[in-house]
Design goal:
12 helices, alpha+beta, five-stranded antiparallel sheet, 3 domains, single chain
Length: 409
C-alpha cells in the first residue's frame, strides 16, 4: 500500500477497503462525508473503525481533483492563480488574482503563477473565489459571453449559442452564473477585444463579449457546459468576424454622458474626426477608439469606425500610435474625471491596446501627459451634459477586419 504511512499492524482496514475509499473520494470530489456514505452503502463497509481508517489513509495518499471536467490542456501548464471577489474603490465587486501565499498575483508576471495542483489544493471554489488560468499568448484564448445565460430558466441568448456552436470547444459556466466562457486555441486577428451589446439581448446590465489571448487571467469553474469536450483549434478569423457581426446586429446604446465629455476633447486635442463624404452620422472619439479598427499605412496611423454596412465613415489619424495613445488617454482623462484605474481599463479594451502598454514607464508617462491636458481642458471649457431625449438619434456601427494590423512605433 504505497499511499499509506501507517504501519500495517496498526491499520484497521484491508488493501481492498483502502482502494474502495480511494474510489469513493474520487467519485465525491474529495467530500469525505459523502465518501463515507458510499463506503457504507455501496461497498458494504459497515465497520466504523475500518471505514474511518481506510478514509484516513486515502485522504493522505490521494490528490482529489476538484475540477475533473477541466481539460488537461490547461492543467498541464504552469499558468494558474487563485482569485477572490473584493470591492474596488467604488464599491463594485471585482475578481482580484492572488498567489497561493496570499500575495497579489499578476497576469503579466509568470513568477507569480503556479501549477494546477498547487492552485486548487486547499482552495475554496465558489462564486466568491477560486482559481484562474492566465493566457500568455501561447495560442490558448478565452471568449467571455457575459450576460448570455438566465440561470432561472436555463435559456441561453441566441447570439451566444451561435458562438458556442461555431467553436465546438470546451465551454463552462462562469462564477456569476449569468455567463459562459469558451476556451479554444488559435491565433487571433488584430483589433478589438471587447464587443459591447445591447442589454436587451441578454440578461443583466452588462451584456458583452470579451476575447483575450494574453496578459489576462480567466476564472475557471469546471462547471462544464458539454459533458465531454477538449480545447479545440478553431477558425479564429471566422469567429472574430462573427463577433463583429453580432455587435453590428445588437449595438450597445450610445452613452450620452460619455459622448458629451468625449466631444469636449475633440476640438482641443489637435486631431479632428474625418467623416466619409456624404456621411450624416456624427460620433465622438471615445466611440472610435473603443469600437474602431487600427489601420497603418504610409499616410499615418488611423483608427477607423465603420457603419452597419461595413463601410468606413469616421476616422482619426495620427503620425504614430504613441500619439494616438496620448490622444485617447486625454479623452479618457475627461470621461473618467482623472480616475487612472478606469482609464487603464478602458484603454486595455480598446483598439489601441498592444504589448507596449504593459511597460509601466510608457503607461505612466502617457497618463501623466493626458491628465495634464485634461485638466487644462476642464479649466478652459465648461462641460455640460444634456439628458438624452426621445428624438436623439441612435448610432448603429459595425467594424470590418479588412487590412487591420497591430502597429508598432
Amino acid at each position: 500500500m504505497s499511499a499509506t504511512t501507517t504501519p500495517l499492524h496498526k491499520q484497521l482496514h484491508t488493501e481492498a477497503q483502502f482502494e474502495s475509499a480511494m474510489k469513493a473520494l474520487t467519485a465525491t470530489k474529495g467530500n469525505r462525508a459523502e465518501a463515507d456514505k458510499i463506503l457504507y452503502r455501496e461497498y458494504d463497509l459497515t465497520n466504523d473503525a475500518a471505514r474511518k481508517s481506510a478514509l484516513n489513509e486515502a485522504v493522505k495518499g490521494q490528490f482529489v481533483d476538484p475540477l475533473p471536467d477541466v481539460p488537461q490542456t490547461l492543467k498541464q501548464l504552469r499558468q494558474w492563480v487563485r482569485w477572490e471577489l473584493e470591492p474596488d474603490k467604488d464599491g463594485n465587486p471585482t475578481k482580484v488574482p492572488y498567489q497561493v501565499n496570499g500575495k497579489k498575483a499578476s497576469s503579466t508576471d509568470p513568477n507569480r503563477w503556479t501549477d494546477y495542483r498547487t492552485a486548487v489544493t486547499g482552495a475554496t471554489i465558489d462564486a466568491s473565489g477560486g482559481v484562474g488560468f492566465v493566457v500568455n499568448g501561447d495560442g490558448i484564448f478565452g471568449i467571455d459571453l457575459d450576460g448570455c445565460y438566465n440561470p432561472k430558466t436555463g435559456k441561453i441568448a441566441e447570439w451566444a449559442e451561435r458562438i458556442i456552436d461555431a467553436c465546438k470547444s470546451y465551454t463552462e459556466y462562469t462564477p456569476s452564473e449569468t455567463g459562459l466562457r469558451v476556451w479554444a486555441r488559435g491565433v487571433l486577428p488584430a483589433g478589438l477585444r471587447v464587443f459591447n451589446l445591447d442589454p436587451a439581448v441578454g440578461y443583466g446590465e452588462k451584456v458583452k463579449i470579451e476575447i483575450y489571448e494574453h496578459s489576462r487571467y480567466f476564472t475557471v469553474t469546471g462547471d462544464a457546459f458539454f459533458e465531454e469536450s477538449g480545447i479545440e483549434e478553431i477558425d479564429t478569423a471566422a469567429i472574430y468576424q462573427m463577433l463583429h457581426d453580432i455587435r453590428a446586429q445588437h449595438p450597445a446604446p450610445v452613452n450620452q454622458k460619455t459622448a458629451e465629455k468625449s466631444a469636449a476633447a475633440d476640438d482641443t486635442t489637435g486631431v479632428q474626426i474625418v467623416y466619409a463624404p456624404g456621411s450624416n452620422i456624427k460620433i465622438d472619439k471615445h466611440a472610435i477608439f473603443m469600437r474602431g479598427q487600427v489601420v497603418k499605412d504610409g499616410s499615418g496611423f488611423h483608427v477607423t469606425l465603420n457603419n452597419k454596412d461595413g463601410l468606413a465613415f469616421a476616422t482619426v489619424t495620427y503620425p504614430s500610435q504613441s500619439e494616438a495613445d496620448l490622444g485617447f488617454a486625454t479623452v479618457l482623462a475627461l470621461i473618467h474625471d482623472g480616475d487612472v484605474d478606469k482609464m487603464d481599463d478602458d484603454f486595455r479594451k480598446s483598439a489601441l491596446y498592444r504589448e507596449k502598454w504593459e511597460r509601466e514607464d510608457y503607461r505612466e508617462r502617457t497618463f501623466t501627459k493626458a491628465l495634464e491636458t485634461g485638466e487644462k481642458i476642464r479649466k478652459e471649457k465648461v462641460l455640460t451634459v444634456q439628458e438624452p431625449t426621445p428624438s436623439t438619434p441612435t448610432v448603429t456601427v459595425a467594424t470590418s477586419t479588412d487590412t487591420v494590423c497591430n502597429a508598432a512605433d
